[in-house]
Structures are given as structure tokens and as C-alpha cells.
Amino acid sequence: MKLQQFNSLFRIPTYRLFLVCMLLQGMAISISAPFLAVYFTTRLEVSIATFGLFTAVTLMAGVLFSSWIARRSDQPGARKKILVSAMICNALAFAGYLWIHDFTLLFIYMTVLTALGSPAMPQLFAAAREAVNSATDVDHAVANSTLRSAFSLGFITGPLLGTLLIAYIGYIGIFSSTCFIFLINALLFFFLLKKAPEPPSIGASSGGIHIKLHQDARIYMPFLITTLLYMAHWMNNLNASLFIIHHLGGGTREVGWISSLCAGLEIPIMLGLGLLASKYPNRSLMLWGSLMGAAYYVIVLFSTELWHLLAGQLLLAFFVAVISAIGISYMQDLLPSMPGYASTLYSNASTLGRLFGSLVGGWTAGVWGYRNSYWVCLLLVLISLGMLVVTQQLSKEKRQTLSL
Q1: What's the pLDDT score for residue 353?
Q2: Contact assessment for residue 149 and residue 12, using Cβ atoms and an 8 Å cutoff
Q3: Which residue windows are transmembrane per the record (predicted)?
């Protein structure tokens, strides 16, 4: 039965296309990401604080533009145009690193181009959702988990490729390769992506519906939950390596081992979660994922040896797999007739979580220390757990109202 669920995915028209493009998307994002801070501080000669400002502004510009596009993305025929245009804009954005060497000019250029390219990821998930909707024997969570696993595989291999490119070619190699991969995705979508089936009549053609949905606690509560969980996750991402070095006596080798272990565990867990989601509600899996995250942060808070953190990676991998693979299904299921809008809500929540997590994580570590910053992570996850319980109660009340 489990094998049949995965086999049925590949009988969906264009699903293989989405898998390949998601793999390439993960590679494109991760090839240059580990080296950007070094590039800005050494080649452009700006401070790390200035680089942080650059990151924050470009992320916020992406959130604003992708939100605006989301209101139009669920209209017939819009998805393919948005995907192709966004991929081309991402390619042009990274091309800017090749010929713009003035920080102010690059700041303006990247803010505009990365914002225009920001709809690529949510619209890719939305296009896949539309394809899955046309199949009657496929679970949405299985499809999303498999897609997210492809992205994770690309995200793991990207830095390895980037390391080789920067060693033998330099920054030109990583930026050129990133442009090339985005262009490949644009060409694949242009030539191979077919028009999606017509959406139901209750779809997103009505512009005012979005405002009403945002006023519905069943929609904005999951948005806040996703933001808080990503915020906790990103605080850990920011501080874990320095915590290992300064508090547990590890070095860069141990940091690499622990990070690789977590990344490697995420992929099989994501695939397994897709199968579990066919039996259990996404909200329940989000609840279990949050509990695993809380348990991980408790382990970090009281850890005294490296093996404590090493053992905790299984809990962290489950937590990250849930918010990455199940989180988007959780959001899409709330708005089944508006996959583009729902996917963008998830994408924006994760982006805001990463942004606030970086800012708060850096501040708390500087003021209270690396270990004590994990109390904030734990608090964020516990708040999210409480909100998940509240949304479950809201859902029960809604069902009771409808049955009367």
C-alpha cells in the first residue's frame, strides 16, 4: 500500500517535472548561500551588520511582493507565467553579483530582483498541488513530503558543489552556476508545464476574499504558528555551531558532523511523514513535531557533552521535517481552492520566522549567552503548542456549527 502511494505520484502528469525542478531549486539556493556573508565582508568590504540589513530588506521585499502576486496566482493561466518570470528574475538577480561591485547599487538591484523572484518556491508547490488535485488516489501530504525531500536533497548537495566551484573557479563559479540552474528551471517550466485544470468557481477570482480569510482565526492562527516554529528553528540554526564550540568543547569538524546528521535524517523522516499524513490529521502531526522540537530544546539547555546534542538530532530532524513538509500541507488544506495563496502564506510565514529568528537569536545570544537563548526557543515552541490546541478547538466548534 505504501509503495502504491509513491508509485501513484509518478503517474501524475508533470509530477516528475516538479521533482526535478524542486531538486534544482534546492541546489540553486544553497550553492552560494554559505559563502554570501564572506563575499560581502571581504569583496564588497561591508560589515556583518550591513550584510544582515541587506538580508532583512531583501527578505521583507520578497514577502511583500509574493503576497501581492498570491492574490492573482490562482486565476486560470497565471501560474505558469509567474513561475517562468520568477525563475528568470532569480537568474538575473544572481547575475548582478557578476557585474555589480558597488554595494549601494547591488543593494537596490538585489532588493528589486529577488523580490520579483520570490514567488518561485510557493508557486512551485502550488502548481504541484494543482497537479495532485487532478489525481484521486494520491494523498496531498505524501506529494508535498516527497517534493520537500527533493528540495532537501538539492539543499544538501548544493554546498558541496559550491565548495568545489569556489575552490577551482572562485565566486564567478558559484554565481554563474546559480544563474544557470534558475534558467534551466525557467526553460523546463516554459516548455513542459501544461495548463492546470480550471479551478472551482469558489476560487481566488474574488479579490476581497483574501481580507476575509485573514480575519478568520482558522487561517491566521496557523500562519502565526508556522512563523513562531520557524523562528525557534532559525535561532537554533544561528547559534548551534557557536554553542557547540563555546559550551561543549567541539570544533568545526563536530559542527559539520552534527549538521550533516540532522540533514541526512530529515529526508527519510519527511517521506515517512507523508505516509503518516494519510492516516493522521496534519494538525496532529504538527502537534507531535512541536513536542519533538520542545524536547530537543530541553536537551540543549541541559546538555554537558557533545553526545547529548548528537542524540538530540533525531528529535530536531523530526521537528524540521514536520514544519517543512507537513506545514505546507497544513496550510494548503485550509484553502484547498486557492493553492497559490495558501502556499504563499506558508512561504511568507517561514520567511518571517527566519528573519525574526536571526534578529532575536543574535540579540539573545549576545545579551544572555548561547545556552540561555534556547529558553526563548523553548518558549516559542510552547506558545505554538498552545495555539495548535486552540485551533483544534476552533475547528471542532466550526464543525458543530455546520452540523446544526
Answers
A1: 92
A2: no
A3: 17-40, 46-70, 82-100, 106-128, 149-168, 174-193, 219-235, 255-278, 285-304, 310-331, 372-390
- Of the candidates 85, 334, 337, the one whose C-alpha atom is nearest the C-alpha of residue 198 is 337
CA-CA distance, 190 to 77, in Å (whole number)?
A: 12
The confidence score (pLDDT) of residue 146 equals: 83
> Which residues neighbour 398 within 8 Å (Cβ) at sequence distance 6 or greater?
218
The whole-angstrom separation of Cα 230 and Cα 361 is 12
CA atoms within 13 A on the CB side of 17: 21
Angle at 314 between CA 308 and CA 316, to 5 degrees: 90
Cβ count within 10 A of residue 134: 12
Q: Provide the grid cell at 368.
A: 544572555
What percentage of the chain has pLDDT greater than the value 90? 36
CA-CA distance, 262 to 367, in Å (whole number)?
Answer: 28
Q: What was the pLDDT predicted at 332? A: 82
All three cell numbers of 389? 490546541
* Nearest-angstrom CA–CA distance, 363 and 207: 39
Alpha helices in 194-338 (DSSP H): 209-214, 217-247, 252-276, 282-302, 306-321, 327-334
The vertex-120 CA angle with 228 and 220, nearest 5°, equals 30
**Whether the Cβ atoms of residue 303 and residue 312 lie closer than 8 Å to each other:** yes
Check residue 186 and give its pLDDT.
96
**Could you give the CA distance from residue 225 to residue 349 in angstroms, rounded to a whole number?**
9
- What proportions of the chain, in percent to the nearest 5, are helix, strand and coil? 85, 0, 15
d(CA 330, CA 282): 5
pLDDT of residue 209: 44
Classify residue 184 as exposed, middle or buried by CB count within 10 Å of its CB (0-12, 13-18, 19+): middle
Q: DSSP readout, 303-320?
A: --SHHHHHHHHHHHHHHH
Burial environment of residue 286 by CB neighbours within 10 A (0 to 12, 13 to 18, 19 or more): buried
Report pTM. Answer: 0.80
Ranges of the chain with pLDDT below 50: 1, 199-211, 213, 402-404
Instruction: State the pLDDT at residue 127.
Output: 87
Cα 386 from Cα 220, distance rounded (Å): 15
Within the chain, what is the greatest distance between any pair of CA atoms?
69
